[in-house]
Amino acid sequence: MNELENERYLVFCIDDELYASPLLDFHEVVEMIKPKPVPNMPEHFSGMINLRGVIVAIIDLRKKMGIGERYQGKQTMLICETETGIMGASIDRVESVIHIHSASVQDVKIAGKIALEYVKGFVNHQDRIITIVDVKSFLSEQDKQFLDVSA
Amino acid sequence: MSELDLEMVGFFLEEVDELLIKWEGICLCLEKEVTTDHINSLSRIAHNIKGSSASVGLMKLSQFVHRVEDVIVEQKNSTQDLSVQTLRMLLAAHSQMVAWVDVLKAEPRSDYYPQTFMDEYFSALPKAAAGEASAAEAVEEHAATPASTSAVLESSLPTTENRPSTEVEAKKSKEEILRISTKKIDALINLIGELSIQQSILQNALENCGTKLQGQLIYSSLNLSHKITKEIYDTAFEFRMTPVGGIFQRLDRAIKDLSRSLGKDIDVEVSGHEIEIEKTILDKMLDPLTHIVRNSVDHGIEPREKRIEAGKAERGVISINVAKIEEGIEITVSDDGKGLSEKRILEKAIEKKLIAPTAVIPREEVYALIFIPGFSTAEAVTNVSGRGVGMDVVMRTIEEVNGKISIGSEEGKGTKFRITIPTSLSIVDSLVVAVNETQYVLPLSFIEEVISLSPSCSPKENKFLMKDKVIPYIHLGEVFNLALARPEHDYPVLVTKVNGRRLAIGVEAILGRHQSVVRDLNTCFDSSFAVSGGTILPNGEPGLILDISAIIQRFFKFLKTSGEAA
Questions:
Q1: Helical residues (DSSP H) of B33-131, grouped into ranges
Q2: Nearest CA-CA partner of B290 in B381, B400, B377, B388
Q3: Hey, are the CB atoms on B525 and A57 less than 8 Å from each other?
Q4: Which of A28, A130, B232, B460 has its CB surrounded by the most CB atoms within 10 Å?
Q5: A39, A48, A50 ranked by CB distance to B482: nearest
Q6: How near does any CA of chain B get to the CA of A20, in Å?
């Protein structure tokens, strides 16, 4: 796990679960704007927004991970550039930015709500488990999956 | 000595494009008239390519050009006229280099070498050449080739480890690079300066506000800022524009190459070089136009004997004219050849089962038959006009850029292709419609008319009558699988037409006309089949530009499959 070294991570949560992704993967964090619906798209795809003239596709991470029940508070969007273009992921809230030592990442294979290939390991941070996830690839993966279905 | 610097190679490949275009242009001039000026500039260009390719580490290309340059220099010093053989070599060398550059653009470390070309032209040439010294030099050069090949190979070996980074760079170099005249940039800078002056006037006026005079000042300054902003926008847009003259030369070459091999004498007339159009559209037009002019050379213009027989001038004429029109530009390609035979087109269409033998088809529509996939005249199978594209591909490519094509022809007199294309793909004149509280954008160029249907005569089974014609119908909500409330009031229906096929599309409301600026969409939207792009709507929200052609195709495909199932 050399590539992880001592990087800064953005920690965010969905329900009470903590997740972290490399900070530099994200362009920005913006307040939730209600996305405009796009027809004929998979359900976890909540639509698109106008982010200063750029059309950004928004994915509902809760739906994507199969977590039901909408979050009651105001959600937040993580904007990042994926293989297919600029995308946003709606999450419940951003927790913090922390440093994680690659040595402290435990590579345990636990099948959870995110496919194993996107889970880079787990960290114990102040007695809480943080799942390290490659959000960038996770986001662009789903449309491939969808394309396969439609083909 | 020659570490391949990918960034430098990228710059070189951009620069060499222009040099190669000049090379071709000079060769075409030399064909008409041999002047020392032309030979000199050709030699300069060859020298330039040789030097810069070597400096970025493309040794093989450099050596290749060196060999060709030798021939040019020899010609320069020779008292003899330029031979047809040499001129043909120079043109062939150009084609080789264009192909080579394409290969290098995809893979800068490519091992490409046009061996067959070298064998064909250079195994014989040195012997024929008069100067012994240059022949010896050429041989020496040849011997040096294998050594430097391995040098290039070696230099590429150690870098295999950091492959990912080079791939990223390769991706970067694919970004399109435009050449922009300093005049345009200066105009933009000027405008931005003006805008900042207005801004400081506004700032000033706000600080001393309260008087009526200041109010007026603010008002007029805002007004001016508005105008300037629009001008900035227009000027920046022009950056993407390029004169159409750029492809004339390539068409000229295509005509000359083919007419030479067919033994026909053809003059090419062009007009409208200076008219500007978005570069991406122009690039896309090259293939269809090449196909059309090759068709004219091959099928249009008759052999000399036939022309004399018909009382025509010995030399055929193909003219390419570009003119500005309201919708964009119009390109006409006309020849004074034998024209299209309505009778033969009809026979062919019946033979290929494209139309019923009893069908009565108006004259203009007869010509349009050649655009139907599956229609190709017998001669088109030869490798001359062949190239794997038919007129259907020509039409499709033109429609991809929201253009139209039509044919006029008179038997015995000639054929005229008229193509109209928009000057820009970045702005689409469109209608904004609403379905289920969501707004969609439809390009106006595909909308034939807008009618209104009352709920009482709502279309049954996807069709209705309009002026005694049966028009297939679908509601936009159905296209998107949306739950729809039954309409209570009259609702608008857009009659669209693509590729000769009509489809009426019902919507809930038309909100207005809009000059939509096309924005890139995340490719994940591709799975929503009916979308061709995105735009920002007048209300600031993102909107989807609908792909009418895809909707129509899907509609008829669906009808077909559901019909078969029934």
A1: 36-55, 59-77, 84-106, 115-122, 125-128
A2: B388
A3: yes
A4: A130
A5: A39
A6: 24
Backbone angles phi, psi at B323, to 5 degrees: -140, 150
Nearest CA in chain B to A88: B522
Burial string for A15-45 (b: 16+ CB within 10 Å, else e) reads eebbbbbbeebbbeeeebeebbbbbbbbebb
**What is chain A's length?**
151
Helix (H, G, I), strand (E, B) or coil at B232: helix
Residue (of A17, A66, A19) closest to A42 by Cα position:
A66
In angstroms, the separation between the Cα of residue A14 and the nearest Cα of chain B is 24
B377's enclosing H/E stretch is: none
Residues of A in contact with B236 (CB under 8 A): none
Q: How many CB pairs under 8 A join A and B?
A: 74
Which residue's structure tokens are 């003899």?
B80
Who among A41, A87, A140 is closest to B527 (CB)? Answer: A41
Tell me which residue has tokens 């096309």: B518
pTM for this entry: 0.59
Q: To the nearest whole angstrom, how far is the Cα of A138 from the nearest Cα of chain B?
A: 13
Query: Rounded CA gap, B287 and B291, in Å?
Result: 6
- β-strand pairing of B316-325 with B266-271: parallel
The chain B residue lying nearest A82, using CA atoms, is B522
CA–CA distance from B295 to each of B212, B388, B391, B406 (Å)? 70, 13, 10, 15
- State the CB neighbour count (10 A cutoff) for residue B207: 8
Q: How do the domains of chain A map onto residue ranges?
A: 2-150
Q: Which amino acid is at B119?
A: D
Across the interface, whether the CB atoms of B522 and A36 are under 8 A apart is answered no
**Could you give the C-alpha distances from B445 to B54, B394, B402, in angstroms and in order?**
49, 18, 7
Label residue B497 exposed, middle or buried (CB < 10 Å: 0-12, 13-18, 19+): middle
Minimum Cα–Cα distance from A56: chain B residue: B522
CATH of A2-150, one of 2.10.220.10, 2.40.30.20, 3.40.50.300, 2.40.50.180: 2.40.50.180
Structure tokens at B459: 């279309």
